[in-house]
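Are you able to produce any protein sequence you like plus the matching backbone structure tokens because I've never seen that pairing?
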Amino acid sequence: MGVISGEGLLRLPVTLRGIRLGQPVDLLLDLVDRHALGLVVLCRDETYRFLPWAAVQADDDEIRVASPLMLLEDVDFYRARSDSFRALLGGVVRRHGAQVGALHDVELERTGKVAGVAVTRDGVEERLDAEGTSLSSERAAA
């Protein structure tokens, strides 16, 4: 079934039957369980809403929702209980305790499980299996 890039998801519009509802601006993650909780979406009415991962139907061109009721209003509730992908970008990635680079992207299974991370170290990007890695918003030393 393949993996989905976190960065790629944030470039796709959220739609309902072809009608654009908004644009994702962040991906919220549960770092303990290594799982995506959902997306923060800037809607056309200029409000931010939370789209639970279970409601995400992503393909190459769009993120489809079955109902606008899937876009929940209490974004702060979900932000307080998760980690922001945007805040983690550029942060330290450790593997088995050793620093291996700066976070460039995450790879998600369709279920939302974090399958891998893309790190940058000395200008070279590398993909690592998520197992044994930890993410931090602490910035990597240059």
